């Protein structure tokens, strides 16, 4: 069953409406019309000030295996419309059978800190292909970006203390667990309890023991002693099965025996009760017993806000075990990333920018073939400019806030980097897989170069992101024109 579910090709892992549109383009002879789509989110998750991009590697792997096999085509042939006739012509299904991706993709590298409205991915190629990819790309990028961001918040709160990701049992199924472990690691967690994620993705694995181990013996002292005998080099004793502080004393006794045998107890784990009070008391007991280096691991429904609170209470926790709240992104379980058409090529070869209007300014799309230019100075990120590569950057070097055009900022005399890099050309991957450790390091470095007020959990300072002033003016013009033609249309029909 698991093998069957995840066996490529996975071209059917899309919404049916992508195939109904693909069919329409094919019938109209427009399948190969060139188009540009952008994948972006509008607002960072968790009411925060930033997000950490993740999931590109899995997206590229998806694209590399993309094709419809005969069983996919047989299934599509079985679909019918409301007249019970087949939904798709056989010639279209033959076309899908032959289809190989020829799109170009530019993407921000994983681990990049990104903001609302900025394309994380730009797909350029035949409109039929671009459209089919909307759903799988969103599926693959939205979730990992969400979890990498949650992990960045949690690890920021933890500071120099390691965060262990313990989420497998609460994750959204098998793939939800594996991709959450990967994204959590990108966002800064130090290890996972998920052994399969360790094997498949090379993430360090860590584990202590559960209450059941203690409960299976007559006494806690015996449980710790037997655990130490079995695994003297990995002793983190869970001390809260009966009486937490008594448990810490028992752990110290076994720690002393271990030391006599030439091993050192790693620490203890607290999994209930007042974690500030208990960690402070536990620290004192451990120190007095000669274990000032022993770690105090804490788990139990912890998130970034609880970490911050515990730290402000002077807690002595040194390692954080975080499951549910991390891998389910508990307080915001989905990132609202979207994938929008932004330009099409005309018969004469020129590109026509496309715009979608909305009552809400933030939902009016940004037309063109976009790139993001990031300005920095002295290791600090200062602002991002979204510009249209078809026009280049306006010499006025000014960004305009797309939500409030009165807010403008000049960006000159700084170093600039363009964030989107070419990762796929004519359907072929052109960048090798990046090491997860390098991606994690990129996230770490970029988070460090963000002003702390932007990293704040509550009501963060807004990082300056704006449209190149030329792009802003062209977009504004398109908005006015689109509104006007709508009014004229209404007048004609009324
Ligand atoms: N000092 C503290 N300050 C703020 N939050 C805390 C503090 N100590 C523990 N917490 C958090 O409070 C919540 C306590 O949850 P709950 O009442 O379900 O746990 P418990 O009764 O201590 O343990 P359990 O039910 O697992 O035996 C957890 O989310 C925990 O992380
Ligand atoms: O709390 P999380 O952040 O999800 O971390 C993982 C939790 O999983 C384990 O217990 P489990 O929740 O299975 O049982 P318990 O709550 O009864 O200890 C562990 O003891 C943690 O409490
Ligand atoms: O190793 C642990 O302590 C652990 C692993 C998974 C879930 N909770 C705790
Ligand atoms: Mg629990």
UniProtKB/TrEMBL annotation:
PTMs per UniProt: Transiently phosphorylated on a His residue during the reaction cycle. Phosphorylation strongly increases the affinity for substrates and increases the rate of nicotinate D-ribonucleotide production. Dephosphorylation regenerates the low-affinity form of the enzyme, leading to product release.
Domain Nicotinate/nicotinamide phosphoribosyltransferase, first and last residues per copy: 165-344
Nicotinate phosphoribosyltransferase C-terminal domain sequence ranges: 373-472
Gene Ontology molecular-function annotations: nicotinamide phosphoribosyltransferase activity; nicotinate phosphoribosyltransferase activity
UniProt key word Cell division: no
Catalytic activity: 5-phospho-alpha-D-ribose 1-diphosphate + nicotinate + ATP + H2O = nicotinate beta-D-ribonucleotide + ADP + phosphate + diphosphate
A Gene Ontology BP annotation from the UniProt entry: NAD+ biosynthetic process via the salvage pathway
Alphabetical UniProt keywords: Glycosyltransferase, Ligase, Phosphoprotein, Pyridine nucleotide biosynthesis, Transferase
Residue intervals passing through the bilayer: none
Residue ranges annotated for the Nicotinate phosphoribosyltransferase N-terminal domain, each copy included: 12-142
GO cellular component terms given for this protein: cytosol
Enzyme Commission number(s) from the entry: 6.3.4.21
Signal peptide region: none
Matching Pfam families: NAPRTase, NAPRTase_C, NAPRTase_N
Metabolic or biological pathway, per its Swiss-Prot or TrEMBL entry: Cofactor biosynthesis; NAD(+) biosynthesis; nicotinate D-ribonucleotide from nicotinate: step 1/1
SUPFAM superfamilies xrefs: Nicotinate/Quinolinate PRTase C-terminal domain-like (SSF51690), Nicotinate/Quinolinate PRTase N-terminal domain-like (SSF54675)
Task performed by this protein: Catalyzes the first step in the biosynthesis of NAD from nicotinic acid, the ATP-dependent synthesis of beta-nicotinate D-ribonucleotide from nicotinate and 5-phospho-D-ribose 1-phosphate.
Family: Belongs to the NAPRTase family.
Entry protein name: Nicotinate phosphoribosyltransferase
